[in-house]
TrEMBL record:
This is lysozyme. Its EC number is 3.2.1.17. PROSITE patterns: GLYCOSYL_HYDROL_F22_1, GLYCOSYL_HYDROL_F22_2. One of its GO terms (molecular function) is lysozyme activity. Keywords: Antimicrobial, Bacteriolytic enzyme, Disulfide bond, Glycosidase, Hydrolase, Secreted. Residues 89-107 form the Glycosyl hydrolases family 22 (GH22) domain. GO terms for cellular component: extracellular region. One of its GO terms (biological process) is defense response to Gram-negative bacterium. It comes from the Eukaryota. Pfam families: Lys. The keyword Cell wall biogenesis/degradation does not apply. Its main location: secreted.
Length: 140
């Protein structure tokens, strides 16, 4: 019953950004070549982290991941629950779960810049790194 109610509530699943819309947004926001990665790398990351869902959420135990880029509460945002959160992006984690992804983009770029790549995202390491990712941008 709870699963059904969760699916039936308007907005409960969040907005899913289409693959090609995400490609366009990322290109417009300077992701091509940023930290030596392609837009295809970022689209692959988003697909495997959040399935393009702006309201994606994952509980990791002591911390949680939020939004389309699955930004972690231990280091990057404040959810009011994670003890010792560094909040390096200086924002509330709830901002990463709305349909406006401008703040998500700013924080994701900060994460990638500090890491000099996309290695903080397990999904990128496990599903995207070292692979041919042309299909993620093909037709867009």
């Amino acid at each position: 019953l709870l699963v059904f109610l969760g699916l039936a509530l308007p907005g409960a699943q969040g907005k899913r950004i289409s693959r090609c819309d995400l490609v366009k947004i990322l290109r417009q926001n300077g992701f091509e070549g940023f930290v030596g990665k392609t837009v295809a790398d970022w689209v692959c990351l988003v697909q495997h982290e959040s399935s393009y869902n702006t309201r994606a959420f994952n509980n990791n135990g002591p911390s949680r991941d939020y939004g389309i880029f699955q930004i972690n509460s231990q280091y990057w945002c404040d959810d009011g629950r994670t003890r010792g959160s560094k909040n390096a992006c200086r924002t509330s984690c709830s901002k990463f779960q709305d349909d406006n992804i401008k703040d998500d983009i700013q924080c994701a770029k900060k994460i990638a810049q500090e890491a000099k790549g996309l290695t903080p995202w397990y999904a990128w390491r496990d599903h995207c790194r070292g692979r041919n990712l042309n299909s993620y941008v093909r037709g867009c």
